[in-house]
């Protein structure tokens, strides 16, 4: 099969299109999926361009936001059949550890992610075919395209972020960052009954998209968003701030713009470490809530996309064939392109 692999060329990571071996169904619960669409995630971009990153290493097939058609199933598979169109949940969970037993699947002790080497090497979906377990497959309704199916992963993550915090009617929620996740989180936040959802970003184009998709207020990130949020909340600060960028500057903004006893959702992770001032966290008695992956939100995400409650089509800003994966990464990496979701069509 054709696959996009990370290769090291003169000590720089490059993407090469190669004829790779078709993966095998090594368990009777395995399913072969002919990939129809796979998105490039910010984590792919950062891992690929960071020479020191161990999350995206040479030899790996990336891709953890995917959908496709089932072409083969193991003997014990009951969830899907050949010909089914499915979204793929990239999380491989054990189902047996203490966390899984409590239903805390996103923090499974033995969790692995396909298309990543972060928790153990697992090839992903930037290829014609991928083998996943049946539990990772979620049926797509007729009305959804495979491209929309490939957005189920980011949307389910976005819903999970909102499920991790208690939202009260009338709350002011700030979403820092209008990338794919920020725009999905903004739309999920609007569904909670919150009062206002405010989005900050540097890109005017992305802010315009946020506004078109329902953000109540958008703020340019270089126009003192902390002062703007404070003035919009009578000096009190926002009830909930969701960080979807992942750098020190924006985490600092989050701490400065949240109200006393407010919540900050730690979701963005561009850098491995950020340095934050302790005193405001202590003296404002803040809730800092970490978020990683979805738990049981995939079917909800599919429902919300199918019913139009969350609109993902306008988020797909660029499309490339698998042959042009390297160009797709370069396009996404250049801020001048205002890329939101770059989709590969294998
Ligand atoms: Zn991702
Ligand atoms: Zn587990």
UniProtKB/TrEMBL annotation:
Please name the Gene3D superfamilies in this protein's record: Medium-chain alcohol dehydrogenases, catalytic domain, NAD(P)-binding Rossmann-like Domain
Q: Which organism is it from?
A: Cohnella faecalis
User: Cross-referenced SMART domains, in alphabetical order?
Assistant: PKS_ER
Which family, according to UniProt? Belongs to the zinc-containing alcohol dehydrogenase family.
Give the protein's cofactors: Zn(2+)
> What Gene Ontology molecular function terms does this protein carry?
oxidoreductase activity; zinc ion binding
Q: List UniProt keywords, sorted A-Z.
A: Metal-binding, Oxidoreductase, Zinc
| Protein name, as recorded | Galactitol-1-phosphate 5-dehydrogenase
Classification of source organism: Bacteria, Bacillati, Bacillota, Bacilli, Bacillales
Write down the PANTHER family for this protein, in alphabetical order.
L-THREONINE 3-DEHYDROGENASE
Q: Where is the Enoyl reductase (ER) domain?
A: 10-344
């Amino acid at each position: 099969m054709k696959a996009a692999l990370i290769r090291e060329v003169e000590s720089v990571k490059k993407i090469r299109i190669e004829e790779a071996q078709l993966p095998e169904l090594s368990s009777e619960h395995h399913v072969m999926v002919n990939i129809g669409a796979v998105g490039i995630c910010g984590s792919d971009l950062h891992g690929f361009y960071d020479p020191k990153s161990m999350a995206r290493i040479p030899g790996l097939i990336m891709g953890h936001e995917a959908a496709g058609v089932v072409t083969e199933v193991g003997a014990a598979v009951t969830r899907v059949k050949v010909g089914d169109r499915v979204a793929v949940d990239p999380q491989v969970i054990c189902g047996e550890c203490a966390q899984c037993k409590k239903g805390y699947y996103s923090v499974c002790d033995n969790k692995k992610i396909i298309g990543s080497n972060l928790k153990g090497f697992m090839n992903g979906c930037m290829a014609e075919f991928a083998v996943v377990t049946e539990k990772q497959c979620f049926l797509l309704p007729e009305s959804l395209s495979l491209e929309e199916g490939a957005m189920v992963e980011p949307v389910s993550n976005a819903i999970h972020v909102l499920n991790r915090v208690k939202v009260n009617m009338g709350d002011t929620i700030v979403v820092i960052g209008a990338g794919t996740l920020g725009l999905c989180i903004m739309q999920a936040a609007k569904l909670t009954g919150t009062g206002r959802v405010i989005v900050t970003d540097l890109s005017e184009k992305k802010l315009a998209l946020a506004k078109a998709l329902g953000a109540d207020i958008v703020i340019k990130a270089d126009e003192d968003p902390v002062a703007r949020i404070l003035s919009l909340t009578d000096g009190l600060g926002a009830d909930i701030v969701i960080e979807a960028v992942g750098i020190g500057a924006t985490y600092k903004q989050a701490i400065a713009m949240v109200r006393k006893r407010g919540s900050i959702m730690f979701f963005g992770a561009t850098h491995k470490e950020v340095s934050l001032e302790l005193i405001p966290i202590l003296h404002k008695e803040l809730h800092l809530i970490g978020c990683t992956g979805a738990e049981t939100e995939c079917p909800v995400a599919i429902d919300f996309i199918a019913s139009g409650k969350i609109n993902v089509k306008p988020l797909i800003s660029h499309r490339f064939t698998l042959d042009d994966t390297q160009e797709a990464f370069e396009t996404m990496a250049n801020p001048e392109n205002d890329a939101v979701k770059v989709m590969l069509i294998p």
